[in-house]
Design brief:
globular; 6 helices; about 160 residues; five-stranded parallel sheet; 5 strands; alpha/beta; Ribose 5-phosphate Isomerase B, Chain: A
Amino acid sequence: MSEEITVALGADHGGYALKEEVKRYLLARSYQVVDCGVDSAEPADYPFYGKKVAESVAAGRAQKGVAICGTGIGMAVAANKVPGIRAALCTDSFMAKMARAHNDAQVLAMGARVVGTGLALDILEVFLRTDFEGGRHERRVRQLDQPPATDNNEG
């Protein structure tokens, strides 16, 4: 599975060290990586890198994305500005599982100051290995891009 998946990876200065850990982890497991930056812990603006990760996924250069800043909040907001992208801020493995299974999120946002390396790698692994369930969730995911004309609270 990993040899077929390319992951776009980006961070600001607050997420740089964790990004490098995630990159090593992915490469050791034969994932392809598109490194969207940063290349150091020098101050950098998260919106640029969050959008760059999301644009890589939206353009098909990567199937999944990982965006890391201090809290993950800014990266999630920035990535979600890219049309067609669903970025999810995850602080545990259950959130990562549900982000994929129910929301078909393509971009994982994490906070380097919120999760340690071990937990971040667990979250990442669950995110990458969980498939979208479809079914009733498919309708809801479509609604994110095109809200229905009427309220439909079935199922």
